[in-house]
Write a structure and sequence with these properties.
It is a single chain. By secondary structure, this protein is α/β, with parallel strands linked by helices. The protein has one domain: NAD(P)-binding Rossmann-like Domain (Rossmann fold). Helices cover about 55% and strands about 10% of the residues. Strands 3-2-1-4-5-6-7 form a 7-stranded parallel β-sheet, with helices on both faces. Strand 1, helix 3 and strand 2 form a beta-alpha-beta unit. The chain is globular. The mean pLDDT is about 95. One of its GO terms (molecular function) is oxidoreductase activity. Pfam families: adh_short. InterPro entries: NAD(P)-bd_dom_sf, SDR_fam, VLCFA-Steroid_DH. Keywords: Membrane, Oxidoreductase, Transmembrane, Transmembrane helix. Belongs to the short-chain dehydrogenases/reductases (SDR) family.
Length: about 325
């Protein structure tokens, strides 16, 4: 049987054999990619985060993804340094975490990332002095109130986007990283966005998308710089999550709750330099990449123009 098949193959023209070889190679590559996707999303165990250190620092922990991260890290047995703008909300979140995880030690630092950032970072350094910060979650971020053309972005919004998303992430990392280097271990998670990575463009959110592109490249460079020092740096790329920032109230299969996202996110810490932890998002990512960029651009522009129209209508009603 095998000899018969071999004889038939030998009788075929070389171009057909070449096409067959390419087809088999593509099939093998697809099969291996599928098996890897199944493994990393459903079978691969999460790392023991306490091996990085007994403390985790989370920025933007009073709402949304950051708050969910804080609860999940406490569930894993880590103590917390919570960094946010509102002292009352920081106290509220701290008490809520302690009510569920009584042994968790929590320190809070009030920092207005759109204000005097240097003074805030100094307070962070003073607070973490002597603590083995093993995990850093750079979650704090701002976006547009709603979609708008670049010429409609006022100076305050422009400055806030750059200062919070770019400077905030950079300077908090700069404050925490030396301790990790000294201890030769640590994990840094920077929250990126599908707006900068998954889709080819995010019209009417241009500055937000650009700041998240910075976060992605910043993370990748640090991953390469510090991997041999025992420090795992990662940019996580969520798509839509049910948060106030995304103006989505209800979760669904494709739009996880903040808790659902954070649970998935913790399992990915310490692995790939870039990932989208919630597995249905990876399916959307693959779908987007299978389409021509011009098609995705046109769809996204139409979608964002609709958001802009609804936002302007809401503003006009407020001013009546």
């Amino acid at each position: 049987m095998a000899d018969c098949i071999l004889d038939q193959l030998k009788s075929q023209p070389s171009w057909l054999l070449l096409l067959l070889s390419l087809g088999l190679f593509s099939l093998l590559k697809f099969s291996l990619s599928t098996l890897k996707w199944i493994y990393v999303n459903f079978l691969r165990p999460g790392k023991n985060l306490k091996k990085y250190g007994s403390w985790a620092l989370v920025t933007g922990p009073t709402d949304g993804i950051g708050k969910a991260f804080a609860f999940q890290l406490a569930r894993k047995g880590l103590n917390l340094v919570l960094v946010g703008r509102n002292p009352n909300k920081l106290t509220e979140v701290s008490e809520s975490i302690k009510s569920k995880f009584g042994s968790t030690q929590i320190k809070t630092v009030v920092v207005d990332f759109s204000g005097d950032l240097d003074d805030g970072v100094l307070r962070i350094k003073e607070t973490i002095e002597g603590l083995d910060i093993g995990v850093l979650i750079n979650n704090v971020g701002v976006s547009y109130p709603y979609a708008r053309f670049f010429h409609e972005v006022d100076d305050k919004l422009l400055n806030d986007l750059i200062k919070v998303n770019v400077e905030g992430t950079t300077k908090v990392t700069q404050a925490v990283l030396p301790g990790m280097v000294k201890r030769k271990k640590g994990a840094i998670v920077n929250i990126g966005s599908g707006a900068a990575i998954v889709i080819p463009s995010d019209p009417l959110y241009s500055v937000y998308a650009a700041t998240k592109a910075y976060v992605d490249q910043f993370s990748r460079c640090l991953y390469v710089e510090y991997k041999k020092s025992g420090i795992d740096v990662q940019c996580q790329v969520p798509l839509y999550v049910a948060t106030k920032m995304a103006s989505i109230k209800r979760s669904s299969f494709l739009v996880p709750s903040t808790d659902g996202y954070a649970r998935a996110a913790l399992r990915w810490i310490g692995y790939e330099p870039r990932c989208t932890p919630y597995w249905p998002h990876s399916l959307l990512w693959a779908l987007v990449h299978s389409l021509p960029e011009s098609v995705v651009d046109a769809w996204r522009l139409k979608f964002c123009l609709g958001i802009r129209k609804r936002g302007q209508l809401k503003d006009s009603r407020k001013n009546e």
